[in-house]
């Protein structure tokens, strides 16, 4: 089901902490250890969503491009793996290794982290500044399956450039559009 992120975190929203399984390392990871010195991008993604599949090569390129600039990327999947087995930890690890994710890919089995972030769909992006205050929430860019638009991460990179250049965040972010998070019953 296609969904957009209708819930907008309020001004002053601070990144909720988490302690989640890093599917590649096989250990718990926290926001404090993964955050960047200048900015942190928290992405709600998953393996099976066609919207996520479309943009992930560009996400990987952006994460690599910003790695040396004090920007950290963190991917989180919160989908119900019982009903969506492609989004379970083993499949997540396989994809992250195969595609060379340069960021931690975390599994939110309880879905409490997704709820704390008010996440609604995949892909959905949150950009926090060095103090973990929300600077951007929304889409990666205008690329959608069958849109003919090549993913480049324009919206996300604009938000990151504003942080790195100590400029105000973009006045209006476009809502994320993708597959709904697959909540447990």
The order of strands across the largest sheet is 3-2-6-5-4-8-9
Q: Compute the CA-based radius of gyration.
A: 15 Å
Share of β-strand residues = 15-25%
N- and C-termini, Cα separation: 16 Å
Number of helices: 5
Description of the structure:
By secondary structure, the protein is of the alpha+beta class. Helices cover about 25% and strands about 25% of the residues. It is built from 5 helices and 10 strands. It has helices at about 30-35, 50-65, 90-100, 110-115, 155-165, and strands at about 1-5, 20, 25-30, 40-45, 70-75, 105, 120, 125-130, 135-140, 175-180. The strands form 2 sheets. It has a 7-stranded mixed sheet with strand order 3-2-6-5-4-8-9. Strands 1-10-7 form a 3-stranded antiparallel sheet, with helices on one face. Helix 3 links the parallel strand 5 and strand 6 (about 105). The radius of gyration is 15 Å and the shape is globular. The model has no long low-confidence stretch (mean pLDDT about 95).
Keywords:
single chain; 185 residues; alpha+beta; 7-stranded mixed β-sheet; 10 strands
Please write out the topology.
Layout: E1 2-4, E2 19-22, E3 27-30, H1 31-34, E4 39-44, H2 50-66, E5 71-77, H3 89-98, E6 104-107, H4 112-117, E7 121-122, E8 124-129, E9 134-138, H5 154-164, E10 177-180
Parallel strand pairs: 4-5, 5-6
Antiparallel strand pairs: 1-10, 2-3, 2-6, 4-8, 7-10, 8-9
């Amino acid at each position: 089901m296609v969904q957009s992120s209708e819930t907008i975190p309020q001004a002053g929203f601070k990144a909720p902490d988490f302690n989640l399984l890093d599917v590649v390392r096989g250990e718990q990871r926290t926001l404090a250890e993964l955050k960047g010195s200048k900015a942190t991008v928290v992405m709600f993604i998953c393996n099976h969503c066609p919207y996520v599949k479309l943009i992930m090569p560009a996400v990987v390129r952006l994460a690599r491009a910003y790695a040396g600039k004090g920007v950290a990327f963190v991917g989180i999947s919160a989908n119900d793996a019982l009903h969506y087995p492609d989004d379970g930890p083993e499949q997540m690890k396989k994809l992250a290794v195969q595609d060379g994710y340069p960021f931690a890919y975390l599994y939110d089995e309880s879905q409490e982290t997704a709820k704390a972030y008010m996440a609604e769909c995949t892909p959905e992006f949150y950009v926090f500044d060095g103090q973990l205050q929300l600077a951007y929430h929304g889409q990666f860019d205008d690329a959608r399956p069958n849109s003919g638009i090549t993913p480049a991460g324009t919206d996300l990179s604009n938000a990151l450039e504003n942080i790195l250049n100590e400029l105000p965040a973009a006045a209006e972010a476009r809502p994320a559009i993708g597959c709904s998070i697959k909540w447990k019953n």
